[in-house]
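Subject: Sanity check before I submit

Could someone independently write out the structure tokens for this chain? I want to compare against mine line by line before I put it in a report. The sequence has 94 residues.
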Amino acid sequence: MKIILEDFYYEKLHPNELIKPNNPEILELSQKVMEASQQLKKNLTVQEFQKVEKFLDLQTELNALQAALSFIQGYKIGALKMIEVFSGESEAKE
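---
Independent answer below. Compare away.
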């Protein structure tokens, strides 16, 4: 049996690598993004397309940071829930 905490400690746990994009919506959206990128590349000058790529790289970086912060916040909320459950503080306070 795998020990998740040990993998987490040794930085062997990478949740984003476990995601399999088999959701039809994700696959369709990914295809649309690729097609739009190809259209831009065909219709823009090299310099214009490089600016678009730079913008998209910055947007991707921002999205990654926001996703990490959301993950951390969700983890904290989950931990607080567990503390509440195990401390008995979730009993009705009427």
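---
OP: Matches mine. For the report I'm noting this point. The chain has two domains: 1-43, 45-94.
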